[in-house]
Amino acid sequence: MSDTIRRTGSCLCGGVHFVVSGQPSRIGLCHCKDCRKAGGSVYSAFAIWPRAAFETSGVVATYGTRSFCPTCGSRVAWVTDDEAEVMLGSLDVAPTDLAPEYELWISRRETWLHALPGTEQFEHDRPQAQDADLPPPRPLSDAIPRN
Ligand SMILES: [Zn+2]
Ligand SMILES: [Zn+2]
To answer: How far is the CA of 1 from the centre of ligand 2 (A)?
Structure first.
């Protein structure tokens, strides 16, 4: 397993540490209300790993599936039975070598932010793969802010 990349992360105060192994399943940006409120910033940048690739140590508090450090308040992960969503800013090395592939809730994107070139643009949440009837992602050319 020595050839498997391992990335470490932590909260601001260092009370919570985590490790993610291997490459993430996907990397995105989200402008939704929950991400804005939870992080206090105008969007969140995250990467998602299979749950089994995520290990954490230290005490975390949770709100729903979101976990955060009870001492310093840093968001550390959003963990479900299948996946762990890690905030890119909580990883220890900056800049990371991880680049977003898609953007969610672009209708809530600040007007001074531009669509990230080369990413899929979604009006709301990312359609689930099994929902074949959902419309395709909006082409990037339609997503450029008009000004
Ligand atoms: Zn902390
Ligand atoms: Zn969101």
So the answer is: 33
Compute the average pLDDT of residues 89-114: 96
Going from the Cα of 126 to the center of ligand 1, the distance in angstroms, rounded, reads 30
Structural contact between residues 27 and 66, judged by C-beta atoms closer than 8 angstroms: no
Global model pTM greater than 0.70 = yes
Neighbours of 82 (CB within 10 A): 10
Distance from Cα 144 to the centre of ligand 1, integer Å? 37
State in Å: Cα 61 to ligand 2 middle. Answer: 19
Q: Is 136 exposed, middle or buried (0-12, 13-18, 19+ CB in 10 A)?
A: exposed
Q: Evaluate if residue 3 carries a pLDDT over 90.
A: no
Q: 9 by DSSP, 3-state: which?
A: strand
Domain 6-130 grouped into CATH 3.90.1590.10: yes
